[in-house]
Write a structure and sequence with these properties.
By secondary structure, this protein is an alpha/beta fold. It is about 45% helix and about 20% strand. It contains ten helices and eight strands. Helix 6 packs across helix 7. It starts with a helix and ends in a 5-residue tail after the last helix. About 25% of the residues are buried. The mean pLDDT is about 85.
Amino acid sequence: MKDMEKYYQSLIEQFTLLDDTFMRLIFKDIKCTQLLIRTILDNPTLEIKMLEVQSSINNMLTKSVIMDVLATDKNGDIYNIEVQRANEGANRKRARYHSSILDANILEKGKDPKNLPNTYIIFITEKDVLGYGKMLYTVTRMIKELGEEFKDGSNIIYVNTSIQDDSNLGKLMHDFRCSNPQEMNYEVLKEQVQSYKQDERKIKDMCKIMEQLREDGRIEGKIEGKIEERINTIINLYKNNVGIDIISKSVSITEEEVKDILIKNKVLQ
């Protein structure tokens, strides 16, 4: 068990906000979620009042949905935030389904549909899912013949972390892909990430979560993906003439372990 905990801790060091288990822990903090939505919508005064993580929305007639983050602001507008590494997890029909399931469950029985709040389905993706080379895509319904927005309050937003620049949103995208909290731009995210990577109690809590996921059979693929990602990082650094001592420090393993990986992958003789 101790060896497994040590292994989990090495994975935790490499976690970014694109790792869903880690992301949910960080965005339990309402200040982090508020920063995220404010930055994406470019609305610095937006105020989050209620927040749920891994919220399950059930429907007797349709497929249930577990939403990564579900938030409500002071005006009653609702935000569903999903982080997706795989393109398929953020396809257009899924975005439509999330939007429809929210509408079907947020209006109380007997209430007029005109009281439906504005909804925002926000997919934060590792790659450019829509493929047009943009960092931000905002999708609303249009009146085709007029070229005007329908303004029904339904919004779907894609945020592409593979592009970063010096804008506020670009800096946030950098933070989503950053494993080292000291290199993050936003202090509120930096503090939360740092606490889960350095606080012994929180690290133990994360190890317990990961062990439970492993026992449930839900983490093996993620662990394998992390291992493959680390191996690729080591190989790429070495091929770019980075010294083994520096690679060792970058990925938090010994120099001997780095050499073993390079030898096994026929990069080092």
